[in-house]
Design a protein that fits this description.
Helix content: 40-55%
Shape: elongated
Radius of gyration: 30 Å
Number of helices: 16
Bound molecules: zinc ion
Distance between the termini: 33 Å
Length: about 425
């Protein structure tokens, strides 16, 4: 390679390589490269090897100035001149490009970062690098797994959050598949996801962590689900269990939705349609009362007047607001009094769904008041649910749990340490002067 260019070598930034000629092929930039190795010993006997020709390989690298880059690597072949040596011929190996790879290692690392940190879809990034989906996903796996498996990723949280979400919607073959997410509430980081929504899933995951790690966890917020409580009693017997605002309101909203659907069916004889008064206010009903606009509240009242003759939906709305009130105070005494008002509302309303809701809330009362004792916030769990939804949207329909777990953890569970970019003003390199 005669047209060796120091400038291009600097731009290339791979210490093992020097760059030669550059070629524009359509929008692509082709860069001829070779290694700097001149003197090589035979691996078998140490004799100085002799050149045995070259083989040209094309490898996709990181884009430069927004143009796709192909490295054309004149890979050296070597031969051992010692006739008694068994090694014969071999081709050179480098760290930056794996044997038979279509991508440089740093391009593969960037694919992993774009999918993991930036949350792009694998298909999108594969197109950008001109490779197939499986090649891109392999890069995500190879560069992502060490990050996810690293023990330090777990940190030393003092509080955990436990939450379920759906992984796969129900099909003819299987019901909705649920997974359980474990969140570090101190650092707002997803620690892991385990399949299912079971006591064993939770206790098994905890049992696999080091005992000193478990010992520092004082409190866990959870979905009010008995299986979770059992799994935690097993794995973290010393931790205080807390039902936070987010999960309690989710219970109340579910009950309110049930009442609305039943009343809808009883009064109109069919499931909600666009013009039905209760169907039209289904979203407003779930909004926190103080966040409703005057118009929103007027719409709710109009909807209830027209579609809720026995006042059952209205009663469920009030119960939901009374349960929210329990969380609007930090005092345990006040919370207890507000819980009594909530129970009274559920008793007098004579709505079957509300009686059930009151029973559930009563069963979880110590954990609800645990929220007032510990002052744990529900923010991280809510924020995590939004991030998880985003990744699910990007991946539209994960089928493979391991891929799903990897993608979630890379986005919500690892620190990326992307180096900050210095501001360009104020810096005056000599070559400009
Ligand atoms: Zn040899």
């Amino acid at each position: 390679m005669k047209q060796r260019s120091d400038g291009a070598t600097v731009l290339l930034g791979m210490p093992e390589f020097v760059a030669g000629a550059q070629l524009a092929v359509g929008r692509e930039l082709w860069l001829l490269v070779e290694t700097t190795a001149d003197v090589v010993g035979c691996e078998g006997c140490g004799t100085r090897a002799v050149g045995h020709g070259r083989r040209r390989l094309k490898v996709r690298d990181l884009p430069m100035a927004d143009r796709p880059v192909v490295l054309v690597w004149a890979k050296r072949l070597w031969r051992c001149p010692d006739p008694d040596c068994v090694v014969g011929t071999w081709s050179e190996q480098v760290d930056d490009i794996a044997p038979r790879a279509a991508l440089t290692e740093r391009a593969r690392a960037e694919i992993c970062r774009l999918v993991g940190e930036a949350g792009h879809s694998v298909a999108q990034v594969a197109r950008r690098f001109g490779v197939g989906w499986h090649t891109a996903m392999a890069a995500v796996r190879d560069h992502g797994r060490p990050r996810v498996d690293h023990l330090s990723r777990l940190g030393a949280p003092t509080a955990l959050g436990l939450d379920e979400h759906s992984f796969l919607a129900a099909t003819a073959e299987h019901p909705t598949l649920l997974v359980t997410g474990l969140v570090d509430l101190d650092r707002h980081r997803l620690l892991d996801v385990v399949q299912g929504r079971t006591a064993q899933g939770v206790s098994g995951w905890l049992a696999a962590r080091p005992a000193p790690w478990r010992a520092t966890i004082d409190a866990v917020t959870l979905d009010p689900y008995a299986g979770y409580a059992r799994g935690l009693a097993d794995g973290l017997p010393h931790a205080e269990l807390v039902v936070d605002h987010f999960h309690a309101v989710r219970l109340a909203n579910a009950a309110l939705d049930e009442v609305r659907r039943r009343v809808q069916q009883e009064t109109l004889g069919h499931r909600g349609r666009k013009a039905d008064p209760l169907y039209r206010i289904r979203r407003q009903l779930l909004v926190a009362h103080e966040r409703l606009t005057e118009r929103g509240w007027a719409r709710i009242r109009t909807g209830l007047d027209a579609g809720d003759p026995a006042g059952e939906v209205g009663a469920a709305y009030l119960a939901k607001e009374l349960l929210r009130e329990v969380y609007a105070t930090t005092s345990q005494r006040q919370a207890r009094r507000r819980l009594e008002r909530f129970y009274a509302q559920c008793r007098t309303a004579d709505v079957v769904e509300l009686r059930r809701l009151a029973t559930t809330v009563h069963r979880w009362e110590p954990e609800i008041l645990g929220w007032h004792r510990t002052g744990l916030s529900n923010g991280p769990t809510e924020a995590m649910n939004l991030l998880i939804k985003k990744i699910k949207r990007v991946g539209h329909g994960f089928r493979n749990f391991e891929n799903y777990r990897l993608r979630l953890l890379l986005h919500c569970g690892v620190e990326w340490h992307t180096p900050p970019v210095a501001r360009i003003r104020g810096r005056q390199p000599r070559l400009v002067a």
